[in-house]
Design brief:
The structure is a single chain. The protein has 3 helices and 5 strands; from the N terminus they run E-E-H-H-H-E-E-E. With about 200 residues, the chain is of the alpha+beta class. Strand 4 and strand 5 form a beta hairpin. The N terminus is likely disordered.
């Protein structure tokens, strides 16, 4: 009868989970060898999973094409936002002028005093409160907090109101009809070719 240590075969678990016949004390050595082989295989297989230079170049080219399409659209979107801001500012100014007209018995603000008449308190005749406060007969207004600056075109940033072009004039106002428009030349147009001064 053979002793337990005289070469009796025993079963040991290999690294991959399968039973492997090994001899006596060599079970641990065999498992270690298999583990080393598996680690080496894993290293080689992971290096094969990396991107090649061609694949990276293709990705960069695709991103460049997407950027070339998206950036002009985004810039057009920004211009569209400025156009919308001009429309909003004109609507606000026109509403303020119309409300003044209604409360002052059909009289529009004067060219000389339109800013003060729209942003301050006035009496029925359109005289602006000397204290800037709502007192006595000065019960009308204000109709707008401040005059917005022009947001597009060659006069962008100007907020003055006058009957004709001049330094700091952003808006052209006709007192006889109460109309107001952007003080911009015919050359200033939106993306669709519409003149800003016709908004």
């Amino acid at each position: 009868m053979q002793s337990a240590g005289s070469g009796v075969k025993s079963l040991a678990w290999a690294v991959d989970g399968r039973l492997s016949p090994v001899h006596g004390q060599g079970a641990r050595t065999h498992a270690s060898a298999r583990a080393g082989q598996d680690t080496e295989k894993a290293m080689h297989s992971s290096s094969r999973k990396a991107f090649s230079l061609i694949e990276l170049v293709i990705v960069v080219v695709i991103l460049g094409i997407i950027g070339a399409i998206a950036i002009p659209r985004m810039s057009r979107g920004a211009e569209g936002a400025k156009d919308s801001a001009l429309i909003t500012d004109l609507a606000t100014l026109r509403a303020a002028i119309d409300l003044y007209h209604t409360e002052h018995e059909g009289v529009y603000p004067t060219v000389a005093n339109i800013v003060d008449q729209l942003t301050g308190y006035t009496d029925i005749n359109g005289t602006v409160s000397p204290t800037g406060e709502k007192t006595g007969a000065y019960i009308y207004g204000p109709y707008i907090r401040s005059i917005p600056a022009l947001k597009v075109g060659t006069n962008r940033g100007k907020s003055g109101i006058a009957a004709a072009d001049g330094a700091g004039v952003g808006w052209i106002y006709i007192a006889a009809s109460g109309t107001i428009k952007a003080n911009l030349p015919d050359a200033d147009v939106d993306a669709s070719g519409t003149k800003y001064n016709t908004y």
